[in-house]
Design brief:
With about 375 residues, this protein is α+β, with helices and mostly antiparallel strands. It folds into two domains: about 160 residues, Aminopeptidase (3-Layer(aba) Sandwich), CATH 3.40.630; about 160 residues, 3-Layer(aba) Sandwich (Aminopeptidase), CATH 3.40.630.30. About 35% of the residues lie in helices and about 30% in strands. It contains 13 helices and 15 strands. Helix 3 links the parallel strand 5 and strand 6. The protein is globular, with a radius of gyration of 21 Å. It starts with a strand and ends with a helix.
């Protein structure tokens, strides 16, 4: 789909709306809109088109509505085709947020209509919008034909101006863990390669029974997003114990992919890692810490609450197209328990070899 002409906007301007597909030369134009759009997120950036296409080999359909010669709303989509889990059109796979950003009601309806036409043409099982917040724009699409699955919550909180203020804002018990790590001499460094991050992260997700992303995925993220994508590693002496890949967007920081060694639990390296991400973000001028999404009822969910973050349910919306029910592709589904146990028993080199072929089908 390159362009679809739609009904005129009933707004006073009377300007017609056209829905178009993002082209390679339009990335800067798209990103300028995203940067200025209040409800847009890091995952609405045009760079994800490159990640989807080159990194995961998923066809991407980044739609934007144009009105009066300007972008008025965006909807990034990617088509995930999986022999294991079916076919879906998602905004956006491997990302915690998505959906339509910006625009009047007419613009949003135009983008939604184009996405539904595309979903039917592709013959997907379902169309999915990963809304971040429950607001009127999400509610427009939460009518009877859409389903919701209350599986995830996100954890976001403002950062205070001074690092010490942020430390004191952490609940006492959790703050004591951070202070103990400081006293033990743990320290952090911003890394410029994947040499310490990837082995720590791969081993960490293997212990959880989860397939790992390919190393090239993280290399591509660093290339595409540049200085908006950092790696922070925690050391005890010369020994790397925890590492996290961070995204920066406007005045927000998002620790996105993180892991620790078996020692990290006893030394507090994981806790110290997130504190250092917070402290460094404060120094960088960030005003919001996005702890990311977690599944309800999991250890990660409890961990973030222990930091004093209040969970905000994620109102993801799903519309069935060819499927008769939503696939329950998550580790909490009992049918995957055997797979998880078996995956943990795989030798790590074999898991790292096989993992990327499986994880790209998950979305």
């Amino acid at each position: 789909m390159h362009e679809a002409s739609l009904a005129p906007d009933p707004a006073p301007s009377g300007a017609a709306i056209a829905v178009r597909s993002l082209q390679a030369h339009e990335h800067a134009r798209w990103d300028a809109f995203v940067e200025a759009c209040p409800e847009a997120t890091f995952f609405h950036r045009a760079g994800w088109h490159t990640i989807m296409q080159q990194g995961f080999r998923h066809d991407s359909h980044f739609l934007y509505a144009e009105q009066d010669g300007r972008i008025a709303g965006v909807l990034p989509l990617a088509h995930v085709r999986s022999r294991l889990f079916g076919s879906s059109l998602v905004s956006l796979p491997f990302c915690v947020y998505g959906g339509i950003a910006g625009g009047s009601a007419a613009v949003r309806l135009a983008l939604d209509g184009a996405a539904q036409v595309l979903a039917r043409r592709l013959g997907v099982g379902h169309l999915e919008y990963r809304w971040r917040e429950v607001h009127e724009k999400a509610q427009e699409h939460a009518h009877a034909s859409w389903l919701q699955s209350p599986l995830y919550a996100t954890f976001r909180r403002p950062l205070l101006p001074e690092a010490e203020q942020n430390l004191l804002a952490i609940p006492r018990k959790q703050r004591a863990v951070v202070r103990k790590a400081m006293a033990a001499g743990l320290h952090s460094a911003v890394e410029h390669d994947l040499e310490r991050f990837y082995p720590i992260y791969a081993a960490s997700v293997h212990r959880l029974g989860t397939p790992v992303f390919a190393r090239r995925h993280f290399a591509l993220l660093r290339t595409v997003f540049g200085s908006d994508c950092d790696i922070l590693t925690v050391y005890h002496g010369q020994q790397a114990q925890a590492s996290v890949l961070l995204f920066y967007f406007r005045d927000e920081v998002l620790p996105y992919y993180g892991g620790g060694t078996p020692l990290a639990r006893s030394t507090g390296a994981n806790d110290f890692m997130y504190w250092e991400a917070m402290r460094r973000a404060c120094e960088r001028g960030c005003h919001l810490f996005d702890f990311g999404r977690s599944k309800l009822g999991t250890g990660a969910y409890a961990f973030k609450k222990n930091w004093g973050f209040a969970p905000q349910p994620l109102p993801y919306a799903y519309q069935l197209v060819r499927a008769t029910a939503l696939p329950e592709v998550n580790p909490l589904n009992p049918k995957y328990a055997l797979f998880i146990r078996a995956w943990r028993r795989l030798p790590l080199p074999l898991a790292n070899l096989l993992g990327p072929h499986i994880v790209r089908q998950l979305g």
